[in-house]
Structure formats: structure tokens, C-alpha cells
Fold:
Amino acid sequence: MNRTVSWIVGIVVVVAIVVLAVMGSQGKFSNKDQYQAVFLTNGQVYFGKVSGERSKLVTVTDIYYLRVQQAVQPAEGETASQSQVQLIKLGNELHGPEDEMRINSDQILFIEDLKDDGRVVTAIKDFQARGGATATPTPSNS
Structure:
């Protein structure tokens, strides 16, 4: 009986090592509390919380995207290249989407973790603090 227990423990240890090796070779998994930027092959970028990035369908929740509005006829003193950037919360569009996307991983170019003090995450926090009023990322000073 002692030999059988040793054999089973040995098998469990080998399986555990294989599982850890496979997980380690896939890189780190997203922190579900951190915002990420998801860059798609069609040029769209969504900001949200990513899960399942190792599967065929990547799930994004708490989703925001940027809307860029350019003046057709600029006001006096403005140039045609000046535009207004707004951070929009997904869910108020005409088709009424839920706040969750499942994106085919073949359509994702890359996913970036966003800094907690970055302009987009700061704008998201401001948006949430104001109870859903439109957020505008502050321009960079560079």
C-alpha cells in the first residue's frame, strides 16, 4: 500500500509541474481589476477589463471608447485639424448593447495594460465619479 501511495503522489507532482510549465509559457494573465486597451484589426480601440485572452473569444467588460469630433467649419481662431476627443461609455448607443463584448481573438492586434494614473483611466474614474457624465481625457503637455 505504501508503494501505491508513493506512485500516486509522484503522478500528482508530475501533473502539477506540467500544468505550471504550460501556464508559465503562456505569459501573465490580465489583472481583472486593471483596465486594458484592446486594439482591433479594423482600427478600433476599446478600453475595459479583459478576461479570457488565452481563448478564441476574449471578453471585455466595463467598456469605453474614444469619439473624435472634428469641426466641419472651424470657428475663428481654430484650425481645421483641431478636434474634440470624448471618452464614451458603451451601452447608450441606438442598438442598446450590454456592457460586455466577446471579441474573436483573430481580430485583436494586441492588448495593453493601462496605468492607473494614465489619462484614459483617470478620465474613466472621473466619468464614474460624476455618475456617468461624458468624460474628456485631458490633453498631454508634450
Observations:
- The chain has one domain: 28-129.
